[in-house]
Amino acid sequence: MKKMHQAILSVGSNVDPEHHVYFSLKHISERLGLIQKRSRLYMTEPWGYHSENYFLNYVCIINTSLHPVRLLHEIKRIEKLAGRSKTTPISYEDRPLDIDILFYDDIIHMTPTLTIPHPYIHLRRFVLTPLMDLVPQLEHPIFQLTIEKLHALCEDNKEAKPVEWSVV
């Protein structure tokens, strides 16, 4: 039997976001692992660039047998299925689906293609707010601060407004 791991993913969309939020739930469950919990759904302004298209974001905890690099590979396949074509790794743009690995068990993994924990968690309210729904006492393995404390210290002024799942 394969060893199971806990991964925490951030999911967002601002291109046909209602469709892609449900698309993500289906494909995460089918390709990555069983969704154990998911946060509330949040509407947020784009982070890192300007767009009129707001995002729908959520965070989920999954049980997965996939190694972190394989998990990332499968995430990229899901994003591509949703119609995402990333032009450059450092530019931000509207996207049908964006899935990031926030945490994977309690590991620290740093390579040119994958960093766990995600390097921008502490800077993004659209990530920290849904994390507060699920794991406020989780300690970030690098900063050694809880999600609750990181949320309180976050200087991102973009509000994450809860939206009912049934509305989308």
How is the secondary structure organized here?
Blueprint: E1 5-13, H1 17-31, E2 34-38, E3 41-44, E4 55-64, H2 68-81, E5 98-104, E6 109-110, E7 115-116, H3 125-134, H4 147-153, E8 160-163
Antiparallel strand pairs: 1-4, 1-5, 2-4, 3-4, 3-8, 6-7
Helix pairs in contact: 3-4
Report on the structure:
By secondary structure, the protein is an alpha+beta fold. The protein has one domain: Alpha-Beta Plaits (2-Layer Sandwich). It is 27% helix and 26% strand. It is built from four helices and eight strands. Strands 1, 2, 3, 4, 5 and 8 form a six-stranded antiparallel sheet that branches. Strands 6-7 form a two-stranded antiparallel sheet. A hairpin with a 4-residue loop joins strand 6 (109-110) and strand 7 (115-116). Helix 3 (125-134) runs antiparallel to helix 4 (147-153). It is globular and about 45 Å long. The model has no long low-confidence stretch (mean pLDDT 92).
